[in-house]
């Protein structure tokens, strides 16, 4: 198991305090800058490893950054704290985005990113809870993260804990039936301590989601299963923050975050081939320059 980087964790705590004290526009800029730094780290990591899922990493990073740097009650130096919020990345193939975020928060040294997908590395192509602090459950096979999160939310209720469970889903994985069994159970049980965020970039491996298996009207489907639904721009950090911290009712919440695959890199945006295409060294230089603007 990797261990925390105390210096980076201390910087993360200072960020969280400054964020809590800041006004809206400062908060927006803080999260935007942090997310693009993680995008740059992710690009370099995938470039070194010669594998990864860069398009989905780029689309989900604003969500992950908002959660870890603005919302989640966690402690990078105490990853087993019993009353911490739980976070599950159901779309486990975007592990690179999660690793970049966890390293930036101090869950483990950022130098570990250089080992991504290497021999004996803890940072596998899909997240592993026995190797990486901050990972609550192993994911990769799609359709498992939401069912596990429902179980976590039920456990929190039974134990009288105030912890909240957040799960990020890919939109393509909602074609898996296990998600809808879990959604039905969460609605039936009124799991108000559960929030699902859908990374709605409308692309999956090889095609658009609506060409593969129509998902819309996605909001109405979740409502029909007993969920409250919010729909936001998934790259608007303030809109994400407000949706993720809005007062809860008596039902689980689904946040549909409309995103763009490959966000922030002009030649990747909304291009299906970047689901798992690896950028060349020259493309990484160009992408990094775009993200620094």
Automatic annotation (TrEMBL):
<feature type="domain" description="Transketolase N-terminal">
    <location>
        <begin position="35"/>
        <end position="278"/>
    </location>
</feature>
<dbReference type="Pfam" id="PF00456">
    <property type="entry name" value="Transketolase_N"/>
</dbReference>
<protein>
    <submittedName>
        <fullName>Transketolase</fullName>
    </submittedName>
</protein>
<comment type="similarity">
    <text>Belongs to the transketolase family.</text>
</comment>
<keyword id="KW-0786">Thiamine pyrophosphate</keyword>
<dbReference type="InterPro" id="IPR029061">
    <property type="entry name" value="THDP-binding"/>
</dbReference>
<dbReference type="InterPro" id="IPR005474">
    <property type="entry name" value="Transketolase_N"/>
</dbReference>
């Amino acid at each position: 198991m990797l261990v925390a980087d105390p210096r980076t964790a201390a910087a993360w705590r200072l960020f969280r305090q400054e964020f809590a004290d800041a006004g809206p526009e400062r908060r927006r800029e803080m999260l935007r800058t942090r997310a693009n730094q993680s995008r740059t780290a992710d690009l370099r990591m995938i470039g070194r490893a010669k594998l990864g899922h860069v398009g989905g990493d780029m689309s989900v990073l604003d969500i992950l950054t908002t959660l870890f740097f603005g919302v989640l009650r966690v402690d990078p130096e105490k990853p087993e704290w019993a009353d911490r919020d739980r976070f599950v990345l159901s779309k486990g193939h975007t592990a690179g985005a999660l690793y970049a975020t966890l390293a930036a928060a101090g869950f483990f040294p950022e130098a570990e990113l250089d080992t991504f997908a290497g021999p004996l590395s803890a940072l596998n192509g899909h997240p592993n809870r026995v190797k990486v602090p901050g990972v609550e459950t192993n994911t990769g096979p799609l359709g498992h993260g939401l069912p596990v999160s429902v179980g976590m939310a039920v456990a929190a209720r039974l134990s009288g804990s105030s912890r909240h469970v957040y799960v990020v889903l890919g939109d393509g994985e909602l074609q898996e039936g296990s998600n809808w069994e879990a959604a039905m159970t969460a609605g039936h049980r009124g799991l108000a301590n559960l929030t699902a965020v859908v990374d709605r970039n409308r692309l999956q491996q090889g095609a658009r989601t609506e060409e593969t298996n129509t998902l819309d009207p996605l909001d109405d489907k979740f409502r029909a299963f007993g969920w409250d639904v919010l729909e936001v721009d998934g790259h608007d950090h303030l809109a994400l923050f407000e949706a993720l911290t809005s007062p809860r009712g008596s039902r689980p919440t689904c946040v549909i975050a409309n995103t763009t695959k490959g966000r922030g890199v002009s030649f990747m945006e909304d291009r299906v081939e970047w689901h798992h295409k690896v950028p060349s060294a020259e493309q990484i230089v160009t992408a990094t320059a775009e993200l620094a603007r």
